[in-house]
C-alpha cells in the first residue's frame, strides 16, 4: 500500500496589480486586495514547503512565476509543464511539482481541451481561453516501483459547454489508464455544474458539506457502536434508543455483469466526500478539515462570489485518508491568492 500527499493550488496570474505595501511605520495597516506576485510568491512557496505535498498541481502561473517557484522549491521539488498558448513558454501553465526524493517521473504530456487535443493553443465550443491538462506518470521510490498518474488541469471560466466537453475528454483519457489516478485542479465548476457532474457521474447531488451534519452523524454512529459493545440500550438521538444487537455477516457473491473495470463504471470520486473518516468507522479525521469553499476572490467589486471550484478527484482504487482546504489569508490581510490550497492524503 502506497501513501502520498497531494495538493492543488491556483496561485493567481502575475497581473498588473497597483496595490503597494503599507509604510513600515504603519504597523496597524492591512494589506487587503490583490498584491504583487513579487510579494505573494514567498508565501505560496512557504505553503508548499510547510505542508510538504509529495505532488502539487498549480494553476494559472506564467512562465516567470513557474521559474520563481522552481527556484524557491529547488531544494526538494522538480517540475513539468508548458505554456498553454504554444506548448512552450507562452501563456498560463498547469505545472506539476513533485518531490524528487519520493517519486520518480516516468513520462509526461500536455493535451489541449479542444476538438484537437494535440494542437497547441487550440480552443473550441464556448471557451473563453485556451485550456490544457498536464499528465505525469510517476513511480514511487522504494515501493517496488509502484506507478500512479497525476492529471492537473484548469477548466474554462465562462464556457459551461467547454467545461463539460473538457470533462468528457478527461474521461476518455481515463478509460485508457489502469494505474491509480489523481485528477486535481481548478475546474471553475461548482457541484451542480455539468463538468463536475460529468466527471463524478452525478453521485454527490445529495451530499451535505456542513460540519454540524457531519458531527451529528459521527455522534450517532459512535453511540450505535457503543450499544453493540455494551450489551445495553444507548440513547442515540432525540427520542431514539438503540438496543444491543448481535449481527452475523455472510459473504456474498457479486453479479459478474457488474464487474466492469472501475474506470468504465464510475469516472472519478471526490476526495472530500470519499474521505475515510471516523463517520464511517475508520480511524483518522472526523471529516474534512478546514473550509468548504475554495475560491475566495480578493474582495474586489464585481468579483464572483466565493464558491467551491478546486478539487482533488480519484480513480482506479485510490482512497483518501485526509482532506483539507487550507487558509490563503494572513492576519495582516495578505491574500496569497484568490484561491485556497486543497490537500489530501491518498492511498492505493
Automatic annotation (TrEMBL):
Xref: InterPro entries: CCR4/nocturin_mRNA_transcr, Endo/exonu/phosph_ase_sf, Endo/exonuclease/phosphatase
Record protein name field: Endonuclease/exonuclease/phosphatase domain-containing protein
Gene3D superfamilies to which the protein is assigned, alphabetical: Endonuclease/exonuclease/phosphatase (3.60.10.10)
Residues in Endonuclease/exonuclease/phosphatase domain copies: 7-339
GO molecular function, one term: 3'-5'-RNA exonuclease activity
One protein family per Pfam: Exo_endo_phos
Amino acid at each position: 500500500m502506497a501513501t502520498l500527499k497531494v495538493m492543488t493550488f491556483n496561485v493567481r496570474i502575475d497581473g498588473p496589480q497597483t496595490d503597494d505595501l503599507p509604510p513600515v511605520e504603519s504597523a496597524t495597516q492591512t494589506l487587503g486586495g490583490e498584491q504583487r506576485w513579487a510579494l505573494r510568491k514567498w508565501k505560496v512557496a512557504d505553503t508548499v514547503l510547510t505542508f510538504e505535498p509529495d505532488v502539487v498541481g498549480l494553476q494559472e502561473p506564467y512562465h516567470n512565476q513557474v521559474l520563481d517557484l522552481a527556484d524557491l522549491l529547488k531544494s526538494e521539488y522538480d517540475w513539468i509543464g508548458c505554456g498553454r498558448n504554444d506548448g512552450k513558454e507562452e501563456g498560463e501553465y498547469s505545472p506539476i511539482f513533485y518531490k524528487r526524493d519520493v517519486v520518480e517521473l516516468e513520462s509526461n504530456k500536455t493535451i489541449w481541451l479542444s476538438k484537437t487535443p494535440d494542437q497547441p493553443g487550440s480552443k473550441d465550443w464556448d471557451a473563453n481561453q485556451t485550456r490544457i491538462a498536464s499528465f505525469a506518470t510517476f513511480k514511487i521510490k522504494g515501493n517496488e516501483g509502484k506507478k500512479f498518474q497525476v492529471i492537473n488541469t484548469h477548466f474554462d471560466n465562462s464556457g459551461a459547454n467547454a467545461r463539460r466537453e473538457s470533462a468528457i475528454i478527461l474521461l476518455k483519457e481515463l478509460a485508457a489508464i489502469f494505474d491509480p489516478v489523481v485528477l486535481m485542479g481548478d475546474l471553475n465548476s461548482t457541484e451542480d455544474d455539468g463538468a463536475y457532474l460529468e466527471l463524478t457521474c452525478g453521485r454527490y447531488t445529495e451530499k451535505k458539506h456542513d460540519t454540524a451534519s457531519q458531527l451529528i452523524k459521527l455522534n450517532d454512529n459512535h453511540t450505535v457502536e457503543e450499544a453493540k459493545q455494551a450489551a445495553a440500550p444507548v440513547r442515540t438521538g432525540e427520542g431514539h434508543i438503540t438496543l444491543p444487537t448481535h449481527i452475523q455477516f455472510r459473504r456474498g457473491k457479486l453479479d459478474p455483469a457488474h464487474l466492469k473495470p472501475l474506470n468504465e463504471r464510475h469516472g472519478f470520486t471526490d476526495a472530500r466526500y470519499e474521505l475515510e473518516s471516523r463517520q464511517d468507522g475508520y480511524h483518522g479525521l472526523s471529516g474534512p478539515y478546514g473550509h468548504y469553499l475554495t475560491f475566495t476572490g480578493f474582495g474586489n467589486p464585481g468579483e464572483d462570489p466565493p464558491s467551491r471550484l478546486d478539487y482533488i478527484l480519484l480513480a482506479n482504487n485510490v482512497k483518501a485518508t485526509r482532506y483539507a482546504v487550507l487558509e490563503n489569508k494572513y492576519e495582516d490581510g495578505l491574500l496569497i491568492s484568490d484561491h485556497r490550497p486543497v490537500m489530501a492524503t491518498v492511498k492505493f
